[in-house]
Structure formats: structure tokens, C-alpha cells
Amino acid sequence: MAEAEVLVDTDVPEVAAARLTQGYQHVVLKLGAQGARWIRASDNATVHVPACPPPGPVVDTTGAGDAFVAALLATLFANEGAGDVVAVSEQEARDALSRACEVAALVTTRVSTRP
Fold it and tell me: What is the pTM of this model?
């Protein structure tokens, strides 16, 4: 939520989503321990996935957000090929969010993902 909070001056996910979908077709909110949410502006379709438990002890959260975004995009583009990800379905969003949460959780079990 930190990025969304800076963009729209609120830490309330529902308010941030409403404000961001005024200018973007798709919005993804990273909610930390509460998981993640995807919202499609055209019909306000919303998908929420819970956070994934890490597969071991959390030792460092550095890079978890970057890993989340990388996994989200990789999954969406794998589903759509090199095509248009604007037409993403709710199931594709759920799959991508779930994978992104899994990858982010895994990263937290490693010390410093920065080179």
C-alpha cells in the first residue's frame, strides 16, 4: 500500500482503489500480511488473495515487493503471450496474484536479495 498511499494520499485500500481506478484500467494493491487485491476499472471487478505463508522463517523482506511485481507481470504475460493484458480475466488475475504472493513470501526467507 505504500506506493498507493503516496499516489492518492490514503492508506485505506478501498479509497485508494476508487481513486486509482479513475485513471488506470487495472489496479493492484499489495496489502502485506493481508495479501493483495486486483481491481478492474471498467466494472469494478475485484479479486483478493490472502498472503502466502513463507516456506521458512522470515529473515529479510528486502526485495519482496519487487519480486511480487515481477512474478505478477511474468504470470500475466505468460497467460496472454506478448498480447494485450488489458483483457485479463478474474481467474487470470487470481492466478497471477497467487503466484506473486508465493514468490514474495519465498523472497522473505532469504537474506538480502540485493546484489
Answer: 0.86
